[in-house]
Amino acid sequence: MTGITAAVLGSPIGHSLSPVLHTAGYRALGIAGTSSYGRFEVTEDQLADFLAAHRDHTGFSLTMPLKTALVRLAAERGWHSDETSAQTGAANTLIRHPDRQQIANTDVIGIVEAIAECQPAAADTAAILGSGATAASAVAALHRLGLTALDLYARRPERARGAADLASGLGMQAAVHPLAEYQPGQCLLTVSTLPAGALRAESFSWPGHLDPATVLLDVAYAAGGYSIGADLAAHGGQAIAGERMLIHQAVEQQLLFAAAAGIDAPPQTWRPRLAAAMTEALTTAHTARGDRR
């Protein structure tokens, strides 16, 4: 039986939940016995050599700090880039087909699906916190969701110009602000792309009670420390856990890996099945560790 050999790469990588998700997906597809999913600590300067030394892999998931490095490497090697990676300048997936190599950015659909399943209230303007590769993915995702204006907040506003330019290129209005100027609740929809530990409880001034239609997706999912999503929920808003984005982007990755490996897994049929399997596996993993979520 055909299987998939894949792994997640990044630095640091010890916190990654990708092995739990992809292994659950293998079980759902019925290929667990012939498939594997590993985890490797890889830095930017190690990426090219690592990929060259692991040519037997069907594909890789990539997290920070490798998302922009993969795009640069793909341009150098002439690999195919999907629309989202070319658009955002960031890629989190490498797929090896029999006749070519391809990079993709499944973070965009991960953000879209995580927000869509929350069924947020209609809005024209959203806020994005952060300025890295995931901020660019958030811009593309919010454009897909029909937003027409964005306020971008960054600790170093000059670093958010790339995301602002992307928004402008997509026909969206975009303004850049210092992170300290962000006021929770000023937009009904916010996507925080800041890494875990970047914020503190005193980072913002919270109103007494938020409009219950206020929604925030916090892409960071590492346990421990301050959570802006938990704070928003405590003030009456709706928080979307970063793990929802993680699950949906992993589903898309696994479908891409399956197609490259010649496994019959029609996306319309398998997206919901894989999402359900990965959600169950994550819940089981948290229960086994005694996490409070």
CATH superfamily of the largest domain: Leucine Dehydrogenase, chain A, domain 1
Figure out the total of helices: 10
Q: How much beta, percentage-wise? A: 15-25%
Low-confidence stretches: none
Mean pLDDT: 94
Order of helices and strands: EHEHEHEHEEHEHEHEEEHEHH
Termini distance? 38 Å
Largest sheet: 6 strands, mixed
CATH topology of the largest domain: Rossmann fold
Classify the helix fraction into a percent range.
25-40%
Spatial strand order of the main sheet: 2-1-3-5-6-4
Summing up helix and strand content along with how strands pair, one would put the structural category as alpha/beta
Q: How many structural domains does the protein architecture include?
A: 2
Report the C-alpha radius of gyration, rounded: 19 Å
What's the architecture of the largest domain, going by CATH? 3-Layer(aba) Sandwich
CATH class of the largest domain: Alpha Beta
Shape annotation: globular
